[in-house]
Amino acid sequence: MSNAPIRRRLLAILLTPLLLAFAAIAIVNAQAPRLPSDGPDVVYIESAFALGRAAHDAGDDVAALYYWRRVAPGDPDRARALRHIGWKIHARRRARPAEGVAYVNRSLLLDPFDGNVWQDLVRIYGLVLLP
Fold it and tell me: Which of 25, 45, 63, 116 could in theory staple to 55 by disulfide, Cβ–Cβ 3.0 to 4.6 A?
């Protein structure tokens, strides 16, 4: 008697949850809203995040938004820049948290293990759902 059917069944049982998780991630990524800075007109500035943070600290939200939107998609600071756009600019300074939800959601997709992303996600959803 061959163990092949048992091995195939065991392999299917072990791989099914993994495949479902990958499918769920693909669906979430496909439904994620497109942000204005995702186009080909992105300006690659090495220190765009630092320039945005300096502008924000100086109280210049327009410049901060300008620089944070131009953090390159492959840059490790991209998730943090999007989180700052959503939370610091839209939710706190402009008092329009609904506009910042897409940015914080995208930040979560880029860096799901950053605790600050989760904290700002809960804060921004709290402001939107419990005005």
Answer: 63
Our CA dihedral for 48, 53, 58, 61, rounded to 10 degrees, sits at 80
pLDDT for 8: 78
Token digits of residue 120: 């700002």
Q: Which residue has the tokens 């008092």?
A: 95
pTM for this one? Answer: 0.65
List, for residues 55-111, the tens digit of each pLDDT value.
999 999 999 999 999 998 888 899 999 999 999 999 999 999 999 999 999 999 999
Is 77 strand, coil or helix?
Answer: coil
Distance, CA of 84 to CA of 82 (rounded, Å): 5
Token pair recorded at residue 11: 């392999």
Cα→Cα distances 61→2, 58, 84, Å: 69, 8, 11
